[in-house]
Amino acid sequence: MLGAPYANAFVFPAPARKLLSRLRAMTIRLHRGDLPDDANLGDCVAIDTETLGLVPHRDRLCVVQLSRGDGTADVVQIAAGQSRAPNIERLLADPSVLKLFHFARFDIAVLFRAFGVMAGPIYCTKIASKLARTYTDRHGLKDLVRELLGHEISKQQQSSDWGSDSLSEAQLAYAASDVLYLHALRTRLDAMLKREGRFEIAQECFGFLPARARLDLMGWAEADIFSHQ
Amino acid sequence: MLGAPYANAFVFPAPARKLLSRLRAMTIRLHRGDLPDDANLGDCVAIDTETLGLVPHRDRLCVVQLSRGDGTADVVQIAAGQSRAPNIERLLADPSVLKLFHFARFDIAVLFRAFGVMAGPIYCTKIASKLARTYTDRHGLKDLVRELLGHEISKQQQSSDWGSDSLSEAQLAYAASDVLYLHALRTRLDAMLKREGRFEIAQECFGFLPARARLDLMGWAEADIFSHQ
Amino acid sequence: MLGAPYANAFVFPAPARKLLSRLRAMTIRLHRGDLPDDANLGDCVAIDTETLGLVPHRDRLCVVQLSRGDGTADVVQIAAGQSRAPNIERLLADPSVLKLFHFARFDIAVLFRAFGVMAGPIYCTKIASKLARTYTDRHGLKDLVRELLGHEISKQQQSSDWGSDSLSEAQLAYAASDVLYLHALRTRLDAMLKREGRFEIAQECFGFLPARARLDLMGWAEADIFSHQ
Amino acid sequence: MLGAPYANAFVFPAPARKLLSRLRAMTIRLHRGDLPDDANLGDCVAIDTETLGLVPHRDRLCVVQLSRGDGTADVVQIAAGQSRAPNIERLLADPSVLKLFHFARFDIAVLFRAFGVMAGPIYCTKIASKLARTYTDRHGLKDLVRELLGHEISKQQQSSDWGSDSLSEAQLAYAASDVLYLHALRTRLDAMLKREGRFEIAQECFGFLPARARLDLMGWAEADIFSHQ
Amino acid sequence: MLGAPYANAFVFPAPARKLLSRLRAMTIRLHRGDLPDDANLGDCVAIDTETLGLVPHRDRLCVVQLSRGDGTADVVQIAAGQSRAPNIERLLADPSVLKLFHFARFDIAVLFRAFGVMAGPIYCTKIASKLARTYTDRHGLKDLVRELLGHEISKQQQSSDWGSDSLSEAQLAYAASDVLYLHALRTRLDAMLKREGRFEIAQECFGFLPARARLDLMGWAEADIFSHQ
Amino acid sequence: MLGAPYANAFVFPAPARKLLSRLRAMTIRLHRGDLPDDANLGDCVAIDTETLGLVPHRDRLCVVQLSRGDGTADVVQIAAGQSRAPNIERLLADPSVLKLFHFARFDIAVLFRAFGVMAGPIYCTKIASKLARTYTDRHGLKDLVRELLGHEISKQQQSSDWGSDSLSEAQLAYAASDVLYLHALRTRLDAMLKREGRFEIAQECFGFLPARARLDLMGWAEADIFSHQ
Amino acid sequence: MLGAPYANAFVFPAPARKLLSRLRAMTIRLHRGDLPDDANLGDCVAIDTETLGLVPHRDRLCVVQLSRGDGTADVVQIAAGQSRAPNIERLLADPSVLKLFHFARFDIAVLFRAFGVMAGPIYCTKIASKLARTYTDRHGLKDLVRELLGHEISKQQQSSDWGSDSLSEAQLAYAASDVLYLHALRTRLDAMLKREGRFEIAQECFGFLPARARLDLMGWAEADIFSHQ
Amino acid sequence: MLGAPYANAFVFPAPARKLLSRLRAMTIRLHRGDLPDDANLGDCVAIDTETLGLVPHRDRLCVVQLSRGDGTADVVQIAAGQSRAPNIERLLADPSVLKLFHFARFDIAVLFRAFGVMAGPIYCTKIASKLARTYTDRHGLKDLVRELLGHEISKQQQSSDWGSDSLSEAQLAYAASDVLYLHALRTRLDAMLKREGRFEIAQECFGFLPARARLDLMGWAEADIFSHQ
């Protein structure tokens, strides 16, 4: 359902077809260029991005997905050449809003390159999982959601043309699914981190993420700057 | 020459033989167990360690070398089983003294494991070199000293029995040589980092080193915690 | 249905069995040795070849498939030892006819070796895909047809005995399927290339393909002639 | 000796020391920012560049070396942030001047990134060597100069700080040595290419170099765009 | 069914759901901290352990499973920080009780690290399989149980959070399944080892396992101490 | 059905169960120690062997399967320690009987080691396939039977305990299936070899197989004796 | 010294310079196109070839060196495009003359491709060394000559331009040195092969060499046709 | 000097030439077939072997070297086909004589294969070095002798023809040098092992060596039987 603050947004109809069945009655708000001015995403927002590929200097930002953790998602299409998105920028920079990502390193670099704003403070579910789930080496979002939340999410649209002017329903559903579970994952991962006494080291790792992303953009993407090599 | 504060220290005789010729009249003060109480190493001290190997849970700390950058070195032998060295600990923890290392990650982990003190603040010439000397992938101490300072240092004793009760002259000369050049390297590297606008990112990397060392000791030594894998 | 210009050609019956069901009522014209004299393939023809393998000096050309993009295909069997096919040669050399291939490098080398004619001008859907679809590293024909056209094509007969005197129905259907989609793919890929400003660089790459194929035949097949090695 | 057209250039003194002995009485003209307006480099100029490293988006152009093949070299220092060098730009773009490089792909990308001008026409001694000298896989400049010209050149300064404000004599001598032999190499390589019937394919490869360099800058540096992968 | 000696133990209900169907009416006794005092596991006990991961110095012991080979299993949860379990310790050290493991090397190291007791005497079904089943390189427990006993066991819960305070039914069923088959496997493997004259060499390998586990804990986990390297 | 010459042989009942359904009414004659004296396998016999593994000096011969190409198979169990089998030996050495194998190199080495007789003359369907089927790199028996004969054979029992005193029905069916198709494969492969002018080179390769097997047994199993290394 | 039968041959002067000193007073007869009609090379001739590289379909034969084992060598330059050399062809095909090569596989393929004659009978010192000298994996000609004959030969000219019209003295000396030692090596290797009972298997390997060379030319150069892959 | 018990042994003359200079006045006693009956090698004997290579089933034992640690060596040539050497066998089996080897695993397997006697008790300087010298990964005999004893030994003759009927002086000197230092190395390594608390684990490793060698001969030479794979 489309809430008042998003009057001019396209509301993605509750999926009826088989492909989308697992996203039951999910509400997706689609925007072009930026979040609406009156969007209220709370003090802890899950964020993910879709780009044209993994090479930062080549593959532009196409979509930013956000969720306040209430089962709804805002999907913002970014135009080719667009270099400002004031509402998103304000949110990224807001020190009172925690930004949840899965593999934040990539997303915050992409967002910094697109809009010149370094996100913070940050929580990264991939790093949290590496520190908490020592019993496995599978730390993909799909793995986390399956084991910790008991859901199956599809990654089939991950490699698709996010630069297309009109995204397909499957793309929208996929994009949204990447931010709908991060709040719940954080709750589970924090409990494990605390149980094993690794909560503080996780915070220190999160704290270095902006520097790590800056190194990526500056030309050290391939290097583990801390390695002996 | 043996200075007053180190009255009970063994002074390594100025090397006469060919092997040691390049360390001309170098003054090395040898201590057992700790620095003397009245040691004064200034506000910027170069530190290196020698261990029985590279496996932290197995290979104990044997030697700590320190230099205030005046061409002299203090070499402290650490006994097997020793878990305290108050003067060294105080120095490591002193927030007003910058600690210079080459590949600090290893040394601060070793020192933390030996004495329970995490060193700080830190400057690492290997990281500085990776950020400043983009024109090469050789960031060993020997490489830095050769290119930036025009000296040749020998690494021949690097793999020797540092747990031996009495170190050879060659070992002492080698141990000292690892701390004698760090101040000069820092000067050169800082100039390059500033020239290329990378001084700040270097500081951020140095700042994460204690967390990186803690990850090593906690069991993530093999992992780049920030990698996608 | 068999059109008039192909009076002496064998017409492959519309497939009835399950295996071929996805090629609904596809018209395949089978020829021996060359295209018929009155074949008219338009100004943009999709071409593919089947050989006895991937070693140019060993594995001879067996089949040339062509389509004008109207959903029908001409499949020409080439006899062992055959070194001329005047109608095909004329088509390959005709500067007013664009030749579409998927991985043209291989096919134009095979055709040049068989008939001594270098094809041109050329469009290669694999190169176009590498430049346009930066969000994936899957650039096989099957991948392109699935994502961009929503069809599934089978590659099961790819490795089969194309030197056999009588090709099976499955082989014919497979051979045809490799040229039926290239026109539609080109349309989609050109739109993406233009959207991202990569249309010109794609043309430059197509332009080098004859030289690249000649290098393959001259003995540099393994080398990237432009690499630093 | 310093010729009239270069009145304001620093003339590097004929090297006296052992290190430089093999560059007998070589004349090197050092310039800052651009070639002098009245420089005359003939219709065939050897060009090489020195940068801060091999990552185009990170490592800036520091030095451009040029030689008209008369045993003298012009060495131009490029300042950090400099984005124009009108005389060099004019030379690069001049269709009547052949530009000789060793591994042109890198240099023309660097120059294009620095000044926005794509060099042409081009001759690349590395590609020529790969096509002519099939009896070896050593196609470094040092290898070519040794085998074809009987000289030994040193590559010791290759990895040094070319961003330094004042280059050392060793750096200048090294920089110059990279352009002094290209004319002679071209003569030898062209003779071999013609003898083996590979002169035309070499021209075709040279012709694709601007596109190859553009692909590097656009984000396909790692890919052989023509490979099957 | 819950036997008298285990009055205060939780009895896992006979699984009704599909997931657990293959463990028909299996009896699992769940304990916290240690075996009950009156547990009687016979003179040949199958043992397996679950930990938080594979890094001994990081990943603590969470569960010890034991079976006397009668189709029932005792599952003992070990608390974080727990360093004693007298009944388990007594069993491990009892020279009159043969301990069966699959890949004993890992389990006896984990148990030694947790409780300071080296298990013995030992039988390892993985080593027995390597010596007896030369016709395959698949020596996982699942492979052995399938081929030699005709059962299928699931490894799906292998990588799950064994440190959780309350284990799921699926975890309990998995944990138990790892000890229920070892007695039967030993019978089959011993017959094969004797048939091929390899029973004695197997005993010698079992005899070295405590030393091998000690090497792992001492810091040689990565090394084959007997290799030439 | 059991023919007269094999009066004392066990006749494997025509398989009724699903697993064996594809071997319709196949006749398998099981023997212990040798072929019966009056066995008549014609002038072209397909042979396969089963062993305890792939290490010749360790893993003994367990089973020899033979077929005259009439859809029936003789399966001979070889006892541990057995070193003679006169009827098999006579057959292997008979110069008037062609022996068909798939990957003869392994089988003739195993048979030579077991009985001291080098088989000859030999036809190897794997080598024939490598020379004829250049369009694929899949030359397993299963692949050949599928593509050239349109049957599916199972390899599931390939890694099973062939040293067992009583073989299972599944093992017998599998063992037989490895010799039932070799005659038909030879017919198909010979046609292809002749069509492509490779029949003679195939014969030369077959001729070297005894030497190749002898090299394996003499200690050069890992080496390609003809390689440059 | 120039013997009568070679009246029109160029006689290479006894080397005076340091480079050639180890070839003391070696007599080298240089010919163009073929051996002289009256050349008498005995019943056992050492042969080596020089080409433009290692790709048979690309890199033509340039030089054939021959020696009858008397310390002199005939060096025959082969012109580009030359396809006949009657005297060499007669020698290659003469069944009464044993041809000695080091790594015959390459040379006989090159000679067959150049002149259409397959050499035979053949002796290959590399294969003999692999079978006799099991104590090493160094089977280069240089290694054999050093260990078995106590001489050092230079391989420096191995990679040089053998297609040049006029070969340098260093090239001629190198070319000759490759055939001067083969007779002596054969004597030593045969003694070792006989001592260890490997003389017969060596003959069998030599016998397969023409087939192996034919496989190389037919397109199986990369494959070990006898491997399981 | 030749001692009385070795009256019929050849005494190797004190080396005069440069090559052997470092074995000053070393006494080597050469024997054929076995040690003399009255040889007295004390209760701790260093042993090494030379073979025709590293493949046990192919490469026979040629030489056994022994030393009682007094700077002299007995070198025993073993004939091809020899399967008994009573005095050596008695020594190997004598439980009161400790046998020192460097990489015992290989030598005791070779000796067991040659004479059917498993050596014991054993001390292996390579294993002792791996456990004591954790600061390096260089555990070759040459490395040990250099670091711990300050001598340089040559390995140049390591790969030579030990099956030759008459060994060269260089071979004899090399063979002897491999046993002359083992006593001194043991003293140094034992001191280090005790200092670090690793003496007992070393004994346990030595104790498994006969089983490890037996595994090698039985066909598990490639496998680390204790690995998880």
**Tell me, what is the CATH class of chain A?**
Alpha Beta
> What pattern of helices and strands is seen along the backbone of chain A?
EEEEEHEHEHHHHH
CATH topology of chain A: Nucleotidyltransferase, domain 5
Query: Greatest contact pair?
Result: A-B, 30 and 30 residues
The shape of chain A, in one word, is globular
**How many runs of DSSP E, i.e. beta strands of chain A?**
7
CATH superfamily annotation of chain A = Ribonuclease H-like superfamily/Ribonuclease H
The number of domains of chain A: 1
Structural class of chain A: alpha/beta
Gyration radius of chain A, rounded = 17 Å
Strand % of chain A is 15-25%
Helical content of chain A stands at 25-40%
Explain what this protein looks like in three dimensions.
The structure is a homooctamer of 229-residue chains. Chain A is of the alpha/beta class and 229 residues long. Chain A has one domain: Ribonuclease H-like superfamily/Ribonuclease H (Nucleotidyltransferase, domain 5). In chain A, 37% of the residues lie in helices and 16% in strands. Chain A contains seven helices and seven strands; from the N terminus they run E-E-E-E-E-H-E-H-E-H-H-H-H-H. Chain A has a seven-stranded mixed β-sheet, with helices on both faces. In chain A, helix 2 links the parallel strand 6 and strand 7. In chain A, helix 2 crosses helix 7 and helix 3 packs parallel to helix 6. Chain A is globular, with a radius of gyration of 17 Å. The first copy, chain A, starts with 9 loop residues before the first strand and ends in a 9-residue tail after the last helix. Chains in contact: A-B, A-C, A-D, A-E, B-D, B-E, B-H, C-D, C-F, C-G, D-G, E-F, E-H, F-G, F-H, G-H. At the A-B interface, helix 3 and helix 7 of A face helix 3 and helix 7 of B.
